[in-house]
Structures are given as C-alpha cells and as structure tokens.
Amino acid sequence: MNIDSIKNGIVIDHISAKKGMELYEALDLTSLDCSVAIITNAKSQKMGKKDIIKIDKEINIDLDKIGFIEPNATINIVKNGELIKKFKVNLPEKIVNVAKCQNPRCITSVEKDLDQIFILTDKEKQVYRCKYCEMSLK
Ligand code: ZN
C-alpha cells in the first residue's frame, strides 16, 4: 500500500468498508492535532472495498478497541517514511468502557461510576458478555 503521505505515524489498514468512520470516532481521533486521513472504499484484492486510516503521528492507539470494532484490521507503523512494523490486531479477551450494557437491570445502569466490562465468551461467534449480568452484546 501507499504510505508516501506519512513520515512517522500509524496506518490502520484492512478496515471493512464503511467502518472507518466508526473507528475514527471510537478512537477519538478528532482530538489529535496532527493530520488524520480516512480513505473510504479503497480497492482491495482481498476484501473488494476497504477503509484505511492514516495518522501522521506516533500515538498510542487502543488496540483492544480496534480489535473489537474491526478484528481484521492491520496496523502499520511508519518511521522516517518506511514501514517498520506490521501486525494484525486480535479480538480482545476483555473490553473496558468500549460498549455499554443494554440491560436496564444491570448494576452498571445504576452505578454510573462502574467500568463497563465485557468478556469474550465465544471466539468463533465473537460473543461478548457483560461481566456483571452476563447479557451478551447485540
Ligand atoms: Zn450488564
């Protein structure tokens, strides 16, 4: 892929088409002061169409969040205009404060200070269950 536009930073590749914006918002990339590019509907041999996010800065990104939203994403780390590291994200075993429990009787609906914690209970089907009430996500 073309990394020309970035000198030092991160490229999130192989995002399913239309998920780029969701990821952009989930990672709170609007708060960055560097340039961030979202490429939507890029051509991909593997996926047909895909989204790509380019961040022109070395930042700490939340890999669990990316893995939860887009388990197929690839992370490319660019230094001095060269690709120095490339890896796939993993489906996280546990996610904290990424999603909200929808169960109105859940303790997290009452105790607003509690962290929203979900545990991966089925890797195949990507099922996450609330740590407190065991309700599954979606
Ligand atoms: Zn719950």
Task: Describe the protein in words.
By secondary structure, this protein is mainly β. Helix content is 13%, strand content 37%. The chain has two domains: 9-88, Aspartate carbamoyltransferase regulatory subunit, N-terminal domain (Alpha-Beta Plaits, 2-Layer Sandwich); 94-130, no CATH class. It has helices at 20-26, 63-69, 107-110; strands at residues 9-16, 36-44, 48-55, 74-79, 82-88, 94-96, 117-122, 127-130. The longest helix is centred in the N-terminal third of the chain and has 7 residues, at 20-26. It is elongated. The structure holds zinc ion. Residues 101, 103, 106, 108, 130, 132-133, 135 line the site of zinc ion.
> What is the rounded distance between the termini?
34 Å
Q: What is the general shape?
A: elongated
Query: Rg to the nearest angstrom?
Result: 17 Å
Any low-confidence stretches, pLDDT <50, length ≥5?
Answer: none
| CATH architecture classification name of the largest domain | 2-Layer Sandwich
The biggest sheet amounts to:
5 strands, antiparallel
Q: What sequence of helices (H) and strands (E) makes up the elements?
A: EHEEHEEEHEE
| The CATH top-level class label of the largest domain | Alpha Beta
Q: Give me the number of helical elements.
A: 3
CATH fold node name of the largest domain: Alpha-Beta Plaits
Oligomeric composition of the shown chains: single chain
Category from helices, strands and their pairing: mainly beta
Question: Which superfamily, in CATH terms, is the homologous superfamily of the largest domain?
Answer: Aspartate carbamoyltransferase regulatory subunit, N-terminal domain
Instruction: List the strand order in the largest sheet.
Output: 2-3-1-4-5
**Ligands (ions, cofactors included):** zinc ion
Number of domains: 2
Helix content: 10-25%
The overall average pLDDT, rounded, is: 93
